[in-house]
Amino acid sequence: MLRLMAKSLRRMWAAHTISWRLKREPMVLLGLLLGLPLSLLLTSNALADIGVVDFYGREVHMAKPAERIVALAPHIVENTFTAGAGDKLVGVIHHSNYPAQAKNIEEVGDYKAWSMEAIVALQPDLILMWGSAAPMGSLDTLERLNIPVYVSEPRRLQDIAKNIRDIGVLAGRESMSETAATSLEQQLMLLTKKFQSQKKLRVFYQVWHTPLQTISGDHMISDIMRLCGAQNVFADALSLAPKIGLEAVIQRNPDAIITSGQGGEKPEWLDQWQQYPSLKAVQNKALLFIHPDHIKRPTARILLGAQVMCEQLDRLRAQTGETASFVASSNYRGAYGCFR
Ligand code: B12
């Protein structure tokens, strides 16, 4: 019995399910240490709760696993499916197009605004929102509904695994989410080992063209650059997705410019950089494209975006006389067969 209790505790602790609860409920901890029978503990109110700490450090807890989930960002929808809880989604935001089943779920609005009435009408027992992208004041408004709200704001690659695990815990799908999160961590580790110690290249990631917009060192896209042994020339920017001037790009003179645009094809505005032949990126012929779904969304598919970025930069190293760690041969779409 004691061994069973210990095992169950270890699993819950690893999933951050009860760590905060125990901090607030010393009696629970005492009870566990005294070795009360597991059945007694499970019937106590304290352990009937499940909970996690979200990306804003907020405690999110529920009396039972979520059954009706609304997710307010495409990446959260994707991570919910990866966690094995896609069948519990009742509402999503416009542009939630992966996996294919997500397209059949009711939309509650778009990136500018979502409809509070539509959310309430779906009677969710859990709302998952994207912190930095949400309209001002929306967290307060959602909290007033008295429905648990979990904020997702992954900034480092390993945060994606946390996001998947947290959703698994809140939806009662720990086992599947744990498997998916661990596999993601292992694959990221492999990529890191392969590429991180390469000679640093300086990279500009172009989010938008008019106005010119990029991402700061705090954004996950910068973490992908670090994984590939590169560095964001705008890492020092103060806001997450700053607008910048053309002169700043010319002055920082990146070795490569990477963009994604919105569709599956390289946007035509990437070639506008050819007008500036003094740029190293132009001389290096390093105006590079990565599919937006594989780099703009903090999901398991970011493995694809990371692999493509690392391979492209490694090819550039080889071309400019630096040692390439990897002969890029893999087929972009085929590299991780589980993705589109
Ligand atoms: C910056 C930006 C981003 C950044 C957001 C930075 C961050 N917080 O991490 C990044 C590059 C990560 C991004 C990602 C995506 N974006 Co975007 N993004 C923009 C962009 C260029 C500027 C927004 C901005 O800074 N506005 C100024 C600030 C002051 O206003 P804001 O309202 O506070 O801006 C916030 C929202 O726009 C939000 N946001 C940005 N994109 C998206 C997408 C969705 C679906 C949601 C809910 C919110 C959201 O983040 C901004 C703050 O960081 C706009 C195009 C444009 N020029 O407006 C597209 C735009 C908003 N994005 C769009 C899309 C489609 C996406 C993606 C779904 C692309 C993809 N294929 O994966 C992803 C979603 C990622 C996710 N997590 O699920 C579309 C939305 C279309 C629609 N009608 O729904 C736009 C309009 C581009 C376009 N014309 O197609 N985006």
Radius of gyration equals: 22 Å
Strand elements, count? 10
For this structure, the CATH topology of the largest domain is Rossmann fold
Strand order of the largest sheet: 4-3-5-6
Q: What would you give as the CATH superfamily of the largest domain?
A: Nitrogenase molybdenum iron protein domain
Provide the fold topology.
Blueprint: H1 2-14, H2 19-24, H3 26-33, H4 38-43, H5 45-48, E1 50-53, E2 59-62, E3 69-71, H6 74-82, E4 89-92, H7 116-121, E5 126-130, H8 138-143, E6 149-152, H9 157-170, H10 174-195, E7 201-206, H11 220-227, E8 230-232, H12 246-252, E9 256-259, H13 280-283, E10 287-289, H14 302-319
Parallel strand pairs: 3-4, 3-5, 5-6, 7-8, 7-9, 9-10
Antiparallel strand pairs: 1-2
The structure holds cobalamin.
Cobalamin binds next to helix 6.
Molecular structure report:
It is globular and about 60 Å long. With 340 residues, it is of the alpha/beta class. Residues 1-26, 36-47 and 324-340 have low confidence and may be disordered. The strands form three sheets. The chain has a four-stranded parallel β-sheet. The protein folds into three domains: 2-48, no CATH class; 69-185, 3-Layer(aba) Sandwich (Rossmann fold); 196-319, Rossmann fold. The protein has 14 helices and ten strands. The protein has helices spanning 2-14, 19-24, 26-33, 38-43, 45-48, 74-82, 116-121, 138-143, 157-170, 174-195, 220-227, 246-252, 280-283, 302-319, and strands spanning 50-53, 59-62, 69-71, 89-92, 126-130, 149-152, 201-206, 230-232, 256-259, 287-289. The chain binds cobalamin. The site of cobalamin has 22 residues, from helix 6. Cobalamin binds next to helix 6.
